[in-house]
Amino acid sequence: MIEVLGRRPALTLSVCVALFLLISVLPVNDYVLHILTLSLIFAMFASGWNLTLGILGLKTLGHHAFFAIGAYLSAIVAFYGGVSPWLTIWAGAALAALAGLLIGLPILRIRSMPHVAIVTLAFAEIVRLIFSNLKDITRGELGFWGIPPFDPVSFGETTIRFGLGNAWGSYVLAGAFFFAVQAGLLLLLRSRPGMTFAAIRDSEAAAESLGINLSTWKLAAFALSAGIVGLSGAIYAHYVMILTPTSVAGPEMLITLLAIIIVGGAGRFFGPLYGALLLTGSLELLREFGEYRMLLYGALVIGFVFAAPHGIAGLRIGRLRRRDRRGTRERSSAA
Amino acid sequence: MADGLLLVSNLSVRFGGLLALDGVALEVRDGRSTAILGPNGAGKTTLFNAVAGAVRPSEGRILFAGDDITSIPPHRRCRKGISRTFQITQPFSGLNVIENVAVAIVSRGVPMAAALREAADYVAFVGLEAKSAAPARTLSTGQRKRLELARALATRPRLLLLDEVTGGVDQPSVPELLDLIRRLRVERGITVLVIEHKMDVLHGLADDAIFLDRGRVVTSGSMADIAAHDEVRRIYLGDADAAA
Ligand SMILES: Nc1ncnc2c1ncn2[C@@H]1O[C@H](COP(=O)(O)OP(=O)(O)OP(=O)(O)O)[C@@H](O)[C@H]1O
Ligand SMILES: [Mg+2]
């Protein structure tokens, strides 16, 4: 499992949590916190998507649909129903998971990866069109504004507030959700599901000959993956407090997230976090380039695909492997 | 019939216009190791694929231990006790050797830590201990064949399908590998079906043999009888007289 998890995953995750906590007590300015908050939300999105795209190796390209479903459902129920976002985000995640199951079913039958890519991409486009056409509810591309932020939380004297404009609270909230999800995923990937996913990715024929029910495991991965992405979408909705179908389910979101996964390291547990930190940060820096931003982004991705095909998370493992190889050569020449 | 572990009747497999198996019927009795012989493209691997559930027959029935398994998926056939290795090896290349084997054990519901311990036994049995922590992609072809044997055994099969298991194995270690396979039968009571291209390998490994050509069973019987068959001699021993 070292290829997926890296050398000491629990330690690496603990270090990340410690850094996250350290930043929360340092006097960091609100703009930086805002970027980190977005990074954490996108890192959660990417880690959910990475389950099917990277770890299971299915070329699913429509996960921004689940982000939109989680975001819109949670926002709609909270806005119209007056229900607390603390509750509605779970409804958003659940609906996204259900949608994941539904789209997973036809995909089980498709063996050709380009077709999987096209079907999932088309699904995302359908979801985007549905949200833009439900104008009475979502106001379409005019934007669904007035989405309530998470209710404040009080500890004795201190009250923590959330939503855009409350940078510190939002940062802590995004981090808490992100690291909780990562801890759960790490437990999962270190046990039977992780091993089973790796087996399915490397050889479906061998996996099923060893008693693995491909349909069950793929559907489970799909639902979980979509659920995590939906949850990140819901958290996003109550953070930015305004949604448009194109901003959450449009091509720019697709490209951004694919870039995060590829640059971070597809199929690597820590890839999404590294990718999200690097790319969300650089996306902000590139804002002054306006329309050329996505172009530069594309160039960055291409550069990575050539220079570091396993992404940031793969850099260290690549080095270790080279060292192993050298070690073997030395040993065999000594013999 | 009573001790027929595997019973195949009128089995046909079609790939588009090609009839890879054409009305094959055979019986493998419990505890009798059987060799599947035949020239390239005869349909030997296809027969394994059909028995293991990897290809869907266009006609015919497959009974295993008295149950009709013709239309159940591969993972359920594995649960029933059918296991196989692949002619072109299919390692889980991102996992190490122990983990490759543990996949088969956790899929039976054994917890991870216990599965890794149990996997170590199978890895030792096939003589790969030194490679335990090596990623499967770093193994040689011969080592991969051994890995697949360990993985297949870890499912605790009653019937083991070995597709050219000595292919790519370095010559000096072939006898040892064959000895392992013989022990499976004696010590664990596993019935073995083997596809092999080397006749010398088969003597002492198989009791019975089935000779396939162009998707049909040409002849079947005891290993000694089949080995003496003209067609078999021609293909396996390059016997020019028999060919004429
Ligand atoms: N999945 C497939 N799709 C199409 N044709 C196939 C497929 N699998 C096998 N065939 C064809 O079926 C025939 C039988 O192939 P098979 O692999 O069973 O032969 P074999 O006896 O195992 O040969 P070899 O000794 O070379 O391994 C061949 O003509 C092969 O090309
Ligand atoms: Mg073959």
Describe it.
The complex is a heterodimer of chains A (335) and B (244). Chain A contains 16 helices and four strands. Chain A is mainly alpha-helical and 335 residues long. Chain A has a single domain (2-334), classed as ABC transporter involved in vitamin B12 uptake, BtuC (Orthogonal Bundle). In chain A, the strands form two sheets. Chain A has a two-stranded antiparallel sheet with strand order 1-4. In chain A, α2 runs antiparallel to α8 (167-190), α3 (30-55) runs antiparallel to α11 and α3 (30-55) crosses α13. Chain A is globular, with a radius of gyration of 20 Å. The relative contact order of chain A is 0.18. With 244 residues, chain B is of the alpha/beta class. Chain B has one domain: P-loop containing nucleotide triphosphate hydrolases (Rossmann fold). In chain B, 36% of the residues lie in helices and 25% in strands. In chain B, the strands form two sheets. Chain B has a six-stranded mixed sheet with strand order 6-7-8-3-9-10, with helices on both faces. The termini of chain B are far apart. Mean pLDDT of chain B is 89; it is low at 240-244. The chains are: A mainly alpha (335), B alpha/beta (244).
Q: Brief overview, please?
A:
The complex is a heterodimer of chains A (335) and B (244). With 335 residues, chain A is mainly α. Chain A has helices at 2-5, 9-25, 30-55, 64-81, 85-109, 113-133, 135-138, 167-190, 192-202, 204-209, 214-240, 245-249, 251-264, 271-285, 293-307, 311-334, and strands at 144-145, 153-155, 158-160, 242-243.
Low-confidence stretches of chain A: 327-335
Basic shape of chain A: globular
By CATH, the architecture of chain A is named Orthogonal Bundle
Query: What helical percentage do the residues of chain B reach?
Result: 25-40%
Helix count from the secondary structure assignment of chain A: 16
Order of helices and strands of chain A: HHHHHHHEEEHHHHEHHHHH
Cα-to-Cα separation, first versus last residue of chain B:
38 Å
Q: Please tally the β strands of chain A and state the result.
A: 4
**CATH structural architecture of chain B:** 3-Layer(aba) Sandwich
Query: Strand count, sense and closure of the main sheet of chain A?
Result: 2 strands, antiparallel
